Amino acid sequence: MNSGVFWPTTCPLKMGSASRLSEQYFLQAPRISRRHGFVRELRSSDRGSDRGFGRLPGISVPWGLYEDGFMKRSVYSMCGMCTVRCPIRVEVEDGIATWIEGNPHILGGALCGKGSAGLSFHYQEERPRSPMIRQGSRGGGQWKWVTWVTALDYVADRLKSVMDTHGPESLLMSCRGGPFLDLPETLLKALGSPNFTNHDASCGRNVHHASLSVYGLGRKDFIYDLKKCRHLVLYGRNMLESLKVKEARELMEALSSGMKLTYIDVRQTVTGSKAGRFWMIRPGTDYALNLGLIHTVIRERLFDEAFVNRWTDGFDGLVRHVEPYTPEWAEARTGIPAGEIVALARELSEDRPKVVFHPGWMLARYLDSFYASRSVHILNVLLGSVEVEGGQIIAKGPKDYGKSGLKTLADGVPKPAAKRADGVGWKHTHFDAGVGLFHLFYHAMLHGDPYPLRAYICHRHDPLTAFPDREAQRAALDKLDLIVALDAKFGETTWYADVILPLAGYLEKDSPIAVQKGKIPRFIMRRQAIDPVYDTKPEWWIYRELARRLGVGRCFPYETVEHLWRFQLEGTGYTPADFEEKGFVDLAKQAILLGRDTGLKFKTPSGKIELVSPALEKAGFASFEKYRDKEPVPEGRFRLAFGRHAIHTQGHTQNNPLLHEVFPENVLWINATVAGKMGIREGEVVEISARGVKAHVRAHLTEFIHPEAVFTVHGFGRTVPVLKHAFNVGFADQRMAKGGLDLFDPVGGGIAYMEAPVAVRKVREAEGKAA
Amino acid sequence: MSRYILHQDIDRCIGCYSCEIHCKANKNLPEGPRLCRIYPKGPQWVGAVPRMAFAFMACFHCEHPWCVPVCPTQAMQKRAADGVVFVDADKCIGCKLCIHACPWGVPQWNPVTRKAVKCDLCMDRIDRGLQPACVAKCITGCIHFEPEERATEGIRLRYRQMTSV
To answer: What CA–CA distances, in Å, run from A387 to A354, A393, A519?
Structure first.
């Protein structure tokens, strides 16, 4: 069973697993997605037959008898197709998942297309189906199937040898974020490495840091009360395509009830098409627009004076700072008429405080994205949209309602003594040291500064898809002695690893209980709905096994997931059984708002909203940064914007057969007038290039994108050859950010993907065909 | 027509294509047939804002369906009780006459079973008192499935919500 083989090959039989589901499924499973619908054969052949588990052979029982028996079950769980993790209800017939819907208690059954396509993901064969150890060169695609025992022993031995030679701090772990990180974090901490990080430098870090600088509260410490909001302003936050099901429902409900929506972006989106006001802004000038808005709000005294006087520090500094930034000044930079900027400011002031300026989510865009996001926070503060119905509400945790939070494994483990290798917390003191900045670890890998990194555990993360400059990343990764990937899918980084430990899909596993902060905090559980289709394992099992092999098993004091849940719930008064009814428990019945007279708590040093941030200034950065004009974009060059379509999630879903069918390939949006001058026609293949990297992509001509921008949907251009649908389709936008690991917002820490322009040119007919 | 009305509130539709996937996942369909479809239109200028619209097309379940009489094996049928037009897969011989006959392009080809397949309003679900997959899981609730005598009430109530602010 351990013989060396090339991919693709037949799936090995399930090994080392005490699964209830019989082996016959695994013999059939690999072919199902190709020959039939993805589960048809299993379902029809098992119905009314005597083959299912739990029945005596030879006794045929009509299907209908099982409607309420254990043969047809309903399981409350949590989606895993994207990082939103919507609550779901799964129907399972004869061990096969047949229906997924949004949890009716929270979402009324609503679910996005990705959520439904979760069925085809689980029964698809193009995912890691057994532990794999690399045989040839990194990324060469030559793998050996091994058992879990072999894989875990191998990983543990290699990690031990690295740590013995270079110390435990030479170990790096990155993840994608989310509520289930206690397990990986605990392992790393127990081993003695401080180098735990996540993807956020390629996503929301600027927003998070900007939020911290103003409120002392992070990006996720606020919720936006869309239900009662009167006017919502979105800066490219494409709520209806970059979907969170609950949020999208609330947005549409609010619009039906008369909420105003202003949408500002470099292109028109579905979200913008529902807006009452749409501004096509010049790329990279959000900060200029906001300075113009703040100027107007202050000049015309449109702000909430009582709130500003009571809760803010440094208002006078703000007044002085925005004095030169008139709406006319902003118009010259943004292209948005001064009169309209003034009109928006006045309109918003009429609706305050029930207004929300969304501070952004994926704002790893420019070198000044931190200040752009900070200026959005300041606008919210000026209009009093803090802890108020219809505005921003501070997300409440269990303690805010006098309840105990979940116990974590990591709490029982001492903090490692070593300094972080990304320099966060000691060299870069203005960044949140919780997860640091992923891209700064590459410097340590390459140069051994401040000390060498030699092993990397990549937990459900794909930096080669998420971060810029694949070549630079690979050069750094090649310095490592060991790369271990834990993943349920074949990401670019997974494929580049030395060992793949295949995670069970989200329907196939139990996860630790998660806390969701909100108006009302909630504990929520992901329950296993089906047995693993392949030889994959849940995180709680993998980390426990690794810990035992590495001599830190005491930090994972549980045998089963049930033990883990009971440990987490100690002191909360709840038991795992409390989750049976709805899949979650709400920690309060009635939402409370903190009093705006005395009750607000900001975690800044002053306890107030810091318009002037002493912490920033101590680190050598301005509270109010001067606006710097960006380099003009020359003819034939563009700022490459990237975003989402409702049917895909970053790089996770391109190979899903159902989703691929609806959206198979990304194209390049380009302004129709500009394209016309360049002689580019609709659908024609063009060349996009940046600093030596080239790709071909089909052009989509539209007048609804700014002439200085081009746009594409992220996640395409995959190089993993076993991805039947996604391989070599479309182009990978992040590859165009060549040199981008060194180009990041110095204050917010986020990568500046759009700062350096890309070139687009028409290719000759023959060249285009060859592409 | 069938006794039901499947109505899409276009203002509320966000063109997320979820209905297509909900349908295919429920019917366990391979790549190829898409029983309900979203067709986007726009953006195009409407006043100062470029607007988009998304047309939802499933099956009309016609009073006199073109697809039924042409079927040589009576696989394609109209259910007497409620007028749902559906294919009995066991009887379908894959001759594609229904596909030729339908002016709306509704019956689809399933390349795996090599038979016709079409929207049957998820009649197994509606017989259990549930809603069709596309309706049950629609993100914004923009697709409404109602018995014909009740359909107009919902439309009027939604109009009231829109105008009462």
So the answer is: 10, 4, 10
| Complex-level ipTM | 0.97
The H or E element spanning position A288 is helix A286-299
Rounded to the nearest angstrom, the gap between the alpha carbon of residue A749 and the centroid of all alpha carbons in its chain is 17
Distance CA A658, CA A79 (A): 17
Cα separation values, A648 from A112, A487, A653, B20, Å: 10, 18, 6, 14
Residues in chain B: 165
Overall size of chain A counted in residues: 771
Tens digit of pLDDT for each residue in B3-21?
999 999 999 999 999 999 9
The verdict on a CB contact (< 8 Å) between A647 and B21 is yes
Q: What is the pLDDT of residues A186-218, one digit of tens each?
A: 999 999 999 999 999 999 999 999 999 999 999
- CB of B143 closer than 8 Å to CB of B18: no
Residue to test with chain A: of B13, B20, B28, most A Cβ within 10 A: B28
- Cβ distance of A113 and B162 shorter than 8 Å: no
Query: What are the structure tokens assigned to A765, written together?
Result: 């007919």
Cβ proximity of A234 and A240 under 8 Å: no
Query: Do B30 and A36 make contact, defined as CB atoms within 8 angstroms?
Result: yes
Nearest-CA residue of chain B relative to A243?
B16
Residue A531 scores a pLDDT above 50: yes
Could B112 and A99 be called an inter-chain contact, meaning their C-beta atoms sit closer than 8 Å? Answer: no
DSSP three-state, residue A224: strand
**CB half-sphere exposure, A221, CA atoms < 13 A:** 18
User: What per-residue confidence (pLDDT) applies to A72?
Assistant: 85
Which residues are bridge partners to A233 per DSSP?
Answer: A262, A357
In order, the DSSP letters of A304-367 are -HHHHHHHEE-HHHHHHHHTT--HHHHHHHH---HHHHHHHHHHHHHHTTSEEE---SS---ST
Cβ-defined contact of B21 to A702 (cutoff 8 Å): no
What confidence category does residue B157 fall into, taking pLDDT thresholds of 50, 70 and 90? confident
A685-690 and A758-762 as β-strands: parallel, antiparallel, unpaired?
antiparallel
Shortest distance between the Cα of B79 and any Cα of chain A, in A, equals 23
CB atoms < 10 A from the CB of A639, how many?
23
B15 touches chain A (CB under 8 A): yes
Say whether B61-118 and B1-58+123-165 share the same fold.
Answer: yes
3-state helix vs strand vs coil in chain B, percent to 5:
30, 25, 45
Could you give phi then psi for residue A262, rounded to 5 degrees?
A: -110, 125
Q: Is B44 on the interface with A (CB under 8 A)?
A: no
Which residues of chain A are within 8 Å of residue B15 when distances are taken between CB atoms?
Answer: 240, 270, 646
pLDDT confidence bin for B150, thresholds 50/70/90: confident
A751: tokens are 């990568």
Of A626, A638, A717, A712, the residue nearest A674 (C-alpha): A638
Distance, in Å, from the CA atom of A582 to the CA atom of A729, rounded to the nearest integer, reads: 41
Residue by residue, what is the 3-state secondary structure of A197-209?
Answer: EEHHHHCCHHHHH
Q: Are A525 and A78 in contact (CB under 8 A)?
A: yes
Joined together, the tokens standing for residue A307 give 């709130």
Q: What are the sequence ranges of the domains in chain B?
A: 1-58+123-165, 61-118
Q: What is the C-alpha to C-alpha distance for residues A134 and A126, in angstroms, rounded to an integer?
A: 17
Structure pTM? 0.92
Q: Using CB atoms within 10 A of its CB, is residue A156 exposed (0-12), middle (13-18) or buried (19+)?
A: middle
Cα A412 to Cα A285: distance, rounded to the nearest angstrom: 47
Q: What architecture does CATH give domain B61-118?
A: 2-Layer Sandwich (3.30)
Amino acid at A728: N
Q: Where are the alpha helices (DSSP H) in chain B?
A: 18-27, 67-70, 97-101, 123-126, 133-136, 148-163
Fold classification of B1-58+123-165 (topology level)? Alpha-Beta Plaits (3.30.70)
Residue A550 one-letter amino acid: L
